[in-house]
Amino acid sequence: MDINDIIKPENKVYSKSPLLTDNIMHYCPGCTHGVVHKILAEVIGEMGIQDKTIGISPVGCAVLAYNYIDIDWEQAAHGRAPALATAAKRLNPDKYVFTYQGDGDLASIGTAEIIHACNRGENIVVIFINNAIYGMTGGQMAPTTLLGQVTATTPYGRKAELNGFPLKITELVAQLEGTCFVTRQSAQNPAAVRKAKKAVRKAFENSMMNKGTSFVEFVGTCNSGWKMTPVKANQWMEENMFPFYPLGDIKDR
Amino acid sequence: MAEKILMKGNEAIAYGAIRYGCDGYFGYPITPQSEVMETLMAEKPWETTGMVVLQAESETSSINMLYGGACTGKKVMTSSSSPGISLMCEGMSYLAGAELPCLIVNVMRGGPGLGTIQPSQSDYFQCVKGGGHGDYKMIVLAPASAQDMYDFVDKAFELAFKYRTPAMILSDGVIGQMMEKVELRPIKPRRTAEEIDAQCEWACTGRKSGRKKHMITSLALEAPVQEAANIRLQEKYKEIEEKEALFATYRTEDAEYLLVAFGSMSRLSESVVDLARENGIKMGLLRPITLFPYPKQALESLIPQLKSIASVELNSGQMVEDIRLIVNGRVPVYHFGRMGGMIPSPEEIYEAFVKTINR
What we know:
The complex is a heterodimer of chains A (253) and B (359). With 253 residues, chain A is α/β, with parallel strands linked by helices.
């Protein structure tokens, strides 16, 4: 008995994007990465560009993104994805090139690479997952960790005088002449997912228009790193992350 | 007759890149090699061959641009000098781990630290032994003339693609800055997309319908998988050592004393050999052209006729360690070198050699 015997085709309202592989995801239940992967697979599939898309995966939890979306992937050194994408796109202007990076990768060790790729106006898409913590290494402070937030390296909460301030890298890249579309999204409920998907699609469409860099931040959760249930993590994100990292388009031209 | 043009070694790299079908150059200015990117920018190859030339924000970014471009099967290169090469070591390790072909040119200057902009060969250990983390090697070619700089661009790309591994042209400030006549060889056009697909069946060029996705990574979380990757790399390096060693000799037929020198020091050492011969000393020179693979057999075959060997290097004695490993105590092995950008005269080297005989 297969799925078509259980659900009659006329009753089917949703199916998994064929670009999402059947590999079991290593992400923790409740993690935002899985939902963003789904959005990416759907957008790439719906645009029909899977044969001309190159993904660049980061170092961090999403290092294994190449296991889950059925396109060609380059896996970058920590923070260097925008440099890889720069060359991949300039040498292959007929391809859609995107980076997928977490907050430690993009906003800490890779600050130079992201600023300069955006400032050159590379015609690439940047997907930036901001969950305010280092997930893979076990929950240390990220550049985007909020003041007061407890992590493995800020056990008494982040203090500005000791640890500096949380970095709004998205607002920073929005100031650069090279970016054409900068937006902050989330993926914690169906309405947010639908909205974010539109933003991701626009970003991919921009990359063939010679307009510059499109930058999509996802404010997300790391319930394991935050040591919360998925439901509690979403609630904490809405109450603490959204006021500091407000959602919406920051730049669109 | 082929056209010959007077140019600097650094300029020869740039013309070699354009004329040998390089797809992309990514670099960051540093003395004494800045003429490479300056020449490329002046020549505007994007208007002729379609070659991309980009000034990156750092050497770190340059080397990662190589990684990004190499993943798509393109012929990509960068050039730098010693401090910049140190910054690139992370990327070189990833390129070797992911088995990506590319060309890195190092026009060495004196160190450590910011050091001097004057010539040196003190990156031998760093570049010949790997440089970055992990068990890896790069193919390393040591040019001794502006013509070599030009020709080795093609040779390095050929070897890099043949073995899917980074290749380096390990030059120095003497060769980079010196002006010589360079014969422009026939042009090799850039490869077409079809040719790249045929040559690089592993490349990320977009997953065509019906083929599996290509994933280029140096990551293997499971130890047995990583060990298998390491074993494959070592087998590749062994094959390179067996097949690709290059060298030149000068007056070695009846030599009793041997100088070993690479790059600029091999040019200078020819004068030392002539000077010794004028004084009745049967001296010869072995010039390793590839430093990895090292021409072990060439040295081995000369050992029975030798009384001693001297390694002449612009450093404190780096290549001499490799020579000693090969010689394994059979004849005395000496080192003569200057450091910090100082270049010895042939007479100075000859006098140092004479002291070793009279010991």
